[in-house]
Amino acid sequence: MTVQQRISWPRNFKVSGLAAWSETHPKPALCQGMTSVMPKSRPKSSGALAPEVLFPLQVLLVLICLTLATQPAHAQAYLDCHFVPGWEQSGAKRQYTPDNLFDYRDGAAEGYLIFSFARMQGIDCQSGSTTLAIDVSDMTDADSAYGMFASNRDPNQPIAKIGMGGQLLAQSLLFAKGKYFVEIIQTDGSPTADQTATLQAFAAKMAQLLDGRDTPPETLQWFLSENQTSARLVPESVLGLKILRRGYVAKYSEGQAFIVLEDTPESAAEVMNKLRARYPDSSPAQIADDAFQAKAPYLDGICIFRKGRYIAGYTNLSDASAATAQATQLAPRIP
Amino acid sequence: MLHSFPGKGATMTLKSSRREFLSAGLMLPVAAAASNTGLLQATDKALGKPTNSPVKLDHRTLGKTGLNLTTLGFGCMITSDPSVITRAADLGINYFDTARVYQHGNNERMVGAALAAKRKQLILSTKSISGDKAALLKDLDTSLAELKTDYVDIWYLHAKDKPTEIRDDMIEAQHIARQQGKIRFAGMSTHALPEMLEWTAQKKAFDVVLTVYNFAMDPAMEKAIAAVAATGTGVVAMKVMAGGFRSLKPTDPVAAKLHRDGAMLSALKWVLSKPNIGTTIPSMTDMDQLDENLRAMSEPFSTRDEKILSAHLEQIKPLYCRMCGQCDGACQKGLQVANTLRILAYADGYRQFALARERFQELPAHHAAVRCGDCTECSVKCPFGVQVSARMARAQELFA
Q1: Which residue among B81, B124, B135, B333 has the highest number of C-beta atoms inside a 10 angstrom radius?
Q2: Quick one: pLDDT band at residue A88, thresholds 50, 70, 90?
Q3: Stated pTM of the model
């Protein structure tokens, strides 16, 4: 792939507008002082790079800087009240980072930060006395964006096919697409209004414009689907245990399953040893590379196994043997 | 040393230093007059495996509400698994806090499921961020359904940082809810100290105030909290670990040092050393954090804790203005340096970005036009090592 092919030009980009746009968008750190490495005359020092070498480097640096610098404008193209006729923007666009998200989301900001929140951009759209707040959060990667969505959706309501997954209610719509988590919420207007058509129209347009994948994380497919009520990414301390750092948890009508990815099979084995030490009354189970079952406080019947870098299992079942039976079915689904 | 804290109209002064502010925790008895303690069999980090070490519970009465709360409450916002909440209740923690907006209601759902079996023995609070009576009451009904209860003990108006954000019909909603038996006490949560606390002390509309409070804050905050507590309003402290800890990246050596030294526990113990604080609601993700925080109820704030927190304050020394006034008139461009640095501290130290921007915009008009980067050398030299030029430039970048 060439440098040119890697450049992602914003949809609203015009060369003539670059100067004005760049005034409001600081150069990436890489590009700060760039002009100082672009001498106007041939270097006098014999140790300096020759022009035939320097020029391609300058071009490359300019292209990289343009690529980086145009990203914010690209993201802002996703926010436009005119996506749906009859709606106008109210107030200025807003932008938050991890440093000031508390000002907008208050204590709920922590719920974003634990999912690798990088930046939020938003607008308010108004039609008559109704206001919709539209916020797009960059969650760094698609798994975190889906994790944020799954954590915020109502598990009692169905998932809509928007991006990787969405949820449409009378006055709110959430969805995740690529690394973006999108919230469209009625903040002013009749508390009984049905905004589903408008919300769907906004979401359809935004999902078209947002880059990134529209399939949920592959790991979720490994969970058994029968009697599953919800599945989500737990960004810290799976099962409430710090040593299970980050993983997926699927809830069932009875019990729950989890899958945690460790860095290496060796580090996964080390975690297994620590888990086993927590449950001294556990007994071995014959699943994958290593496994044990136990009756545990607060988790009831548990069975935990290791398969390569993965640590997985079932908890909160009536007894350990029931957990082992379920874990035996889960193990072959994990690659 | 004179500290001033001019909010709207220079409201209070306090003779003390930040060091003294920290040390003050050592002179106060951990168990305040209204507190009492009890012992409970503890569990160790093996997720419920009994040990011989007892957990010492410490209780205080929350203002005039009469609620007898453990001084360690439980902020459920980012808890990873309901088993952590259930275990905390089993260990004797009796105050749990959530909010309607946390995870779009999923947090209330988790808290409700985790505590349903013990509901009548516990004090439960939630919050609504809605801005009118109808929406508030609708939120409350939803909260009750999700929490699987027919009442909450404290219902907060959520995140009110200006008096104008609290309308009469919102207070009326709390009265109606109380008459209907859906709430026991009315509360308000705020991040805007001391102004909202002063307003609350005068208004006397709330039984409980939930406020940011930690060791990294201006010493004058203690006066504001004492004033509101004197009216009989219960004071619950949040963000007691000073949110700055969380904002440090895990790879930051400062973050690693703070964790290694047990700074989180020291910060919690510091807040608990303040008798005007009824209880605290640190966010707890997992069993390990719960185990660590439980120690705050039995271990007094010590000289070691003071050293740990002082070391942390040392880290922010280049950022923290002591308001000594020695830079008055020193700026060639006529900028109000101390005031600007104080305003910047709202944003950087207390996460009060909106408040900081508002205060900056109240400064004389020429402040907005000056850029410290245009000066080749800064004429202001701080005797305490504050990097004035860089800090002023940051304020201009953020607010101008």
Answers
A1: B81
A2: very high
A3: 0.74
Farthest-apart Cα atoms in chain B, separation: 67
pLDDT value of position B317 = 63
Question: What residue type is assigned to position B153 of the chain?
Answer: D
Each residue's pLDDT tens digit, B295-311: 999 999 999 998 888 87
Contacts (Cβ under 8 Å, ≥6 apart) of A164 = A142, A145, A146, A149, A175, A176, A177, A178, A213, A214, A215, A216
Minimal Cα distance from A147: which residue of B? B103
Q: Is the pLDDT of residue B24 over 60?
A: no
- Considering its fold, how many domains does chain A have in total? 3
Q: Which amino acid is at B256?
A: A
How deeply is B130 buried, as exposed, middle or buried, from its count of CB atoms within 10 A (0-12, 13-18, 19+)? buried
B81 CA: distance to closest CA in chain A (Å): 5
Measure the N-to-C terminal CA separation of chain B; round to a whole number of Å. Answer: 31
Which chain A residues in 151-170 lie under 8 Å from chain B, judged by CB atoms?
151-155
% of chain A surpassing 70 pLDDT? 77
Q: What is the pLDDT of residues B336-356, one digit of tens each?
A: 898 888 788 767 665 566 667
Q: Of the candidates A102, A172, A191, which has its C-beta nearest B138's C-beta?
A: A191
* CB nearest to A278's CB, from B47, B83, B347: B47
Task: Indicate yes or no: CB of A103 within 8 angstroms of CB of B351.
Answer: yes
pLDDT, greater one: B88 or B354: B88
* Contact call for B247 and A236, based on CB within 8 A: no
Strands B74-75 and B95-97: parallel
Contact: A99, B80; criterion CB under 8 Å: no
Alpha-carbon distance B332 to nearest alpha carbon in chain A (angstroms): 28
Q: Do B351 and A100 touch (CB under 8 A)?
A: yes
Is residue A190 a part of any domain in this protein?
yes
Would an 8 Å CB–CB cutoff place A68 in contact with chain B? Answer: no
Residue A241 lies in a domain: yes
Domain boundaries, chain B: 2-301, 337-399
ipTM > 0.90 (yes/no):
no
Beta pairing class for A290-296 and A119-127: unpaired
Residues B257-273: tens digit of each pLDDT: 556 667 889 989 999 99
Both structure tokens of B54: 């007892």
The pLDDT, as a whole number, for residue A17 is: 30
Per the structure, the complete domain to which residue A54 belongs is given by 3-73
* Chain B residue whose CA is closest to A106: B159
CATH superfamily ID and name for B2-301: NADP-dependent oxidoreductase domain (3.20.20.100)
A214 belongs to a structural domain? no
**Of A48, A73, A98, which residue constitutes the final position of a domain?**
A73
Residues A128 and A10 in one domain: no
Same-domain status, A66 and A140? no
Last residue of a domain, one of A11, A41, A73: A73
CB pair distance less than 8 Å for A154 and B49: no
Instruction: Give CA angle at A319 (A317, A323), nearest 5°.
Output: 55
CB pair distance less than 8 Å for B103 and A151: yes
Q: How confident is the model at residue B175 (pLDDT cuts 50, 70, 90)?
A: very high
pLDDT of residue B50 exceeding 70 = no
- CATH number, domain containing residue A169: 3.40.1000.70
